[in-house]
């Protein structure tokens, strides 16, 4: 086994021998976190893996949470230069903080702003797949902020529509779709339809949570990784779900993953 793989890599299937393909191709990966324990580091780790020099993949990143400079600074500490990746056409970065996401003003063809955004993404995916024959990953940081930005629209289902639009890329273009969402901001209200749909559509659900035993100096939280698996071909319609749990510690230039009680 490749010693460079960590527990998160193994849980996501990166130990599998797949020719010129990622185990996440054609899948929706949902990362859920909470106020006490941010899951952003999981997104950063996946960004680094997609943009690895050993990979031919390309990344389309929709940033609703922070500007490019933030991600560039974090990824540099992990050994990845995002500016270089943009120059090499392996990274297409949408700085949504600088763009209007509201549907108050409709486009001339009466399509919503989120539909227009998806068409841009769809066209970029088409170009990347045709020119470089690359696997493409689409990341959203984070979906709850898209929902907030779209509040007050004439159509409250635009975020749900956008989710379904993006999900079609997993089947039509074999893209990976990785979405970060803050789960606990909806604890005092009814969960919106798009959140329920994300959980339903997700092939992999990664949850970042605080330790059940409370705070610890050398352990920053715990991860659970649920692989929903693939329906069997036995005709019974059964599915293979696999749940893995481990803990983590965030360092300046990386993450340590370990099973409870096994940290050296």
UniProtKB/TrEMBL annotation:
Q: What pathway does the UniProt record associate with this protein?
A: tRNA modification; 5-methoxycarbonylmethyl-2-thiouridine-tRNA biosynthesis
Q: Name one GO biological process term.
A: tRNA wobble uridine modification
Per its UniProt record, what InterPro entries does this chain match?
Answer: ELP6, P-loop_NTPase
Q: Tell me which domain of life the UniProt entry assigns to the organism this sequence originates from.
A: Eukaryota
User: Gene Ontology terms, cellular component aspect?
Assistant: elongator holoenzyme complex
Instruction: Please report a single Pfam family linked to this protein.
Output: ELP6
Family as reported in the entry's similarity comment: Belongs to the ELP6 family.
The name this protein carries in UniProt is Elongator complex protein 6
């Amino acid at each position: 086994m490749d010693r460079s793989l960590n527990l998160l890599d193994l849980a996501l299937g990166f130990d599998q021998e797949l020719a010129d393909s990622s185990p996440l191709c054609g899948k929706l990966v949902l990362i859920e976190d909470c106020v006490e324990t941010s899951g952003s580091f999981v997104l950063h780790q996946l960004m680094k893996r997609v943009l690895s020099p050993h990979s031919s993949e390309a990344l389309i990143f929709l940033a609703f949470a922070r500007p490019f400079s933030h991600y560039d600074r974090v990824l540099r500490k992990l050994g990845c230069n995002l500016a270089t990746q943009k120059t090499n056409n392996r990274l297409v970065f949408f700085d949504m903080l600088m763009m209007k996401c509201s549907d108050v003003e409709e486009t001339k063809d009466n399509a919503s702003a989120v539909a227009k955004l998806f068409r841009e993404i769809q066209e970029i995916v088409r170009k990347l797949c045709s020119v470089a024959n690359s696997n493409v990953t689409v990341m959203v940081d984070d979906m709850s902020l898209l929902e907030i930005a779209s509040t007050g629209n004439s159509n409250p289902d635009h975020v749900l529509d956008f989710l379904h639009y993006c999900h079609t890329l997993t089947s039509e273009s074999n893209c990976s779709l990785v979405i970060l969402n803050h789960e606990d901001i909806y604890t005092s209200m009814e969960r919106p339809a798009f959140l329920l749909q994300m959980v339903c559509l997700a092939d992999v659900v990664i949850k970042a949570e605080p330790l059940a035993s409370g705070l610890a100096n050398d352990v920053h939280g715990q991860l659970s990784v649920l692989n929903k698996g693939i329906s069997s071909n036995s005709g019974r319609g059964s599915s293979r779900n696999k749940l893995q749990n481990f803990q983590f510690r965030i360092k300046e230039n990386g993450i340590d993953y370990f099973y409870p009680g096994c940290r050296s």
